[in-house]
Amino acid sequence: MKSQLFPEITKTAKTNEGRWVRIFPNDGEGYHLYDALEEKWIGRILVDANDDWIYDGDALAVTEQEEIAGVITGNRKEMEELLRIVNSR
Q1: Reduced 3-state DSSP string for the chain
Q2: Of 13, 38, 47, 49, whose Cβ has the fewest other Cβ atoms within 10 Å?
């Protein structure tokens, strides 16, 4: 999802397994994931308009997939709430 207020920036998240993942927005098509310590691409997360997501890759455990998807969808929900507040004024 492209931000309506600010361009989306690359984020970094640490999973409970200790993996540092860089999350790169991909022009509305999803998010590319990069393992910062192993220096390799580890797949992507695709998110639809209903915040349903799917992991396209094989490097992350299910719990890691859920954590990364939570970072992505959580930020979307925060941005949508901010837009709702701004537009209601």
Answers
A1: CCCCCCCCCCEEEECCCCCEEEEEECCCCCEEEEECCCCEEEEEEEECCCCCEEEECCCCCHHHHHHHHHHHHHHHHHHHHHHHHHHCC
A2: 49
Structure token pair of residue 67? 């954590």
- As for how many domains the chain has, the answer is 1
Q: What is the pLDDT of residue 4?
A: 47
The answer to whether residue 4 sits within a structural domain is no
Q: Is 2 a domain residue?
A: no
Q: What is the mean pLDDT of each run of 10 residues along the chain (89 residues)?
A: 54 90 85 94 90 92 91 71 76
**C-alpha dist (Å) from residue 6 to 23, 36, 71, 89:** 16, 25, 17, 19
